[in-house]
């Protein structure tokens, strides 16, 4: 198409979308709002900007140049926030090291990312020492400490972060460069193979931030992060930019509280003492928060909370509602920066009794502005928006990883026909509300239909004699795949395949599942294989069956 | 700088920022919210999208291709809104014709823009007929009417807008193209020369919209446009995209009310009947609203209002406050899309009595997110942020015109050293609040300082014998320029230069002005030249003096 392309006058500034520009507004709107680090440290937005300038000097003095990668190994901290800005702002790449990985995996990711400098908190010095010989790319370390002095170490360090900042100038002229420059890099782990690197440019992060600000703050029926809120993350900063909220919060200039290492009682105490109003966390963390001792004596009324990462149960939703927490569910993944969808309640849904809202609040909601999201059948066509038909979630947005770092073949699997394939199976209803059902690899593709293994497991588990169940798809010449179920009966009882098939027939009759969804083969076993974190190990089950 | 540029996997989608993507969210979030046209027409967001598809078919059927320009001559209407989207979405350029210009100027702009198709409302058919012979580029017209049938005309028309839409398909596959494609074009008039065209790309408008949404909605101390608001413009849609708010409102999916031709009583009635909560208008329009008959019987409490275009007086602010209107001031210009700054009240200022807020609410506030704004002295250095020192406002933002259409020399004057020079003189205070003082061409540059002619006029006018005053700068060998004042004494009284100089000395003594700001030459006259709209005609005064 021959559109008219914009012409620029001599000396016109072609504004690139760079992370530095997100820092313009926070200190203008709310210069005296605070950044708080646990119960250790606090300062205002003017100081934040000065410290980012100082860190930029420290990094360049340590030899970091444009295109270099800087790793951070830290809990959630004000220093991490400073690195979120200073590292990309000098044209370098911030690698958020996932400190929960095994030492081997950490070393793999740090070599793959070619980290040249590492900012390492005292708590991770031991592991850094253990790995340093395997990391020829690393030229040195900067130590982060919460004590008067960092721990003694054999690492080749440039010194202590605070001491280095102390000496540096608080002015830095941040350069302009291509908005498509890589700003951040981190790794996502699947069940197989090495961790894969996803990467995001300045342009992508700026767009994720300003669009996320508009989406999070403007709808009465959504999580609300606005100027007078107080933000504390409970999804780690090494995990998908802490869902991107630190950038949004900083752009707005809201008060931010970084809790260090996550300890439930400390998180609740910080919530209470710092008057936190907005947080996010995976269901497991929220469960820990609700169950800790401090929670018993803490009023959590009005705490706005976004959950995601895995589906919250209705029971968790009920517990949160009982504490007065206003919770919402988000959907996204490492590959998507991550924000894609959020619970949204329209005015009539907002008017419902909270108990009646719970089923809505654990849905993943509708796509954010600028997000083009489809649920596609195996031929790539949209499934009907009936809340029942399932397909794969495929997506376009201005902030999706453009591939896997240095692995073009894997990137080409992620991106098919110009759509990022999430690997998630979902339905979408008439109102556009997305409901994630399963991972596509756990879906049973039978007779041209997709059957959710999770749904089948849920239906089978309703049989009174069933204690545990796992469903997988096994190859079938006629149907493509058929469902296969492993059953552990309730202790001291027995159950047979015929009884279970009869049990499932009632759901066929009520129209909930198709007849061919009923597993032809059902094995009664004494134990079902699990992964190290207690999830059904379907990979192993498949291997054992084939 | 050698940063690492992002690499894209095969088939990865490189999302261009296109206006079509602003339409994704409104109909998802609030499908049943309404678009209202005066008391004539209303429909919901699903219909809006269908009508935009239909209009795209009508335009392409009429031969409009990518890169062509389509003109609209209409009051504020739902059809104008449809054109805001459909025209750029097919890769064409929307020319918002300023129907307040003289016929000669309209014809100049339409030829300069090379309009190929014109959407013309009944009210402008007569002028279109008068001009059509002078517009060889125009291949045809589409008529817009509020009646059963459009007015009879000798114009070469394709037919009636509604009849054409009726027949068109409500599906259209909008193409992707370069985000730097020109989307909109309109003309700004100065006091001399022909109108100048400013132009904005898809990328610029998308960024203006999502950033504007975040800025307008997220700060408690700012005008708040959020999901449950009802929007009605009172700045015409042909004037700088109605300040960009129709795009923001549509992205959010809020109810929108388009009032047609501005008639104060009708505007107030629509405000009341449609429960409008958010509007914007220049001070003159607001004054008309306050003074009309409907206003007397209408409760305006809580109506959020942004004013701009020229400085509101404290008296207007007081009148608005007396009616319960929550008003704010914005700053921007045709060249800037337009949003640059907005009144912002911090929490302690919000807590003040409304009467004490007025002086703050008529300031132009602080720059929006992503806006890099400086007040620079003649050497290009930042003036002190003391609320007193004045300089020219220079700016960078992702949505500034990159020049004047087909006039590169004028564009090079606008853009100097990579900063857009607004031609406005302002001070900025410690809190970053901008206060526009004057147009730079009306500033007196004397002894290396800038003196605001408006401020001098205000001080001189405080002398009891002065009825009218105009101050200009006249060349001076030693000082560069010196102030020169023309005075009209109060009827039946006299005043001499010495008395006025003595009067001004008190302001020198109080530190308000420098001694060299006192005009050396003061002429007492019986009349001061005015422009056709009653403003001081400083251009004529300068010519008469030189």
Using brief descriptors, characterize the structure shown:
546 residues, seven-stranded mixed β-sheet, alpha/beta, 3 domains, Rossmann fold, homodimer
In helices, the fraction of residues of chain A equals: 25-40%
Largest β sheet strand count, sense and barrel closure of chain A: 9 strands, mixed
- What fraction of the residues of chain A are assigned to beta strands by DSSP? 15-25%
Structural Rg of chain A: 25 Å
CATH architecture of the largest domain in chain A: 3-Layer(aba) Sandwich
Q: What is the overall silhouette of chain A? A: globular
Mean pLDDT of chain A: 93
CATH superfamily of the largest domain in chain A: ANL, N-terminal domain
How many strands of chain A? 26
Number of domains of chain A: 3
Distance between the termini of chain A: 52 Å
Q: Which CATH class of the largest domain in chain A is shown?
A: Alpha Beta
Largest interface: A-B, 83 and 83 residues
Sequence of strands across the biggest β-sheet of chain A: 2-1-11-10-12-13-14-15-16
The CATH topology of the largest domain in chain A is given as: Rossmann fold
Low-confidence blocks of residues of chain A? none
The oligomeric state of the chains shown is homodimer
Total count of helical runs of at least 4 residues of chain A: 18
The class by helix and strand makeup of chain A works out as: alpha/beta
Organism (chains A, B): Amphritea atlantica
Protein name (chains A, B): Fatty acid--CoA ligase
GO molecular function (chains A, B): ligase activity
Family (chains A, B): Belongs to the ATP-dependent AMP-binding enzyme family.
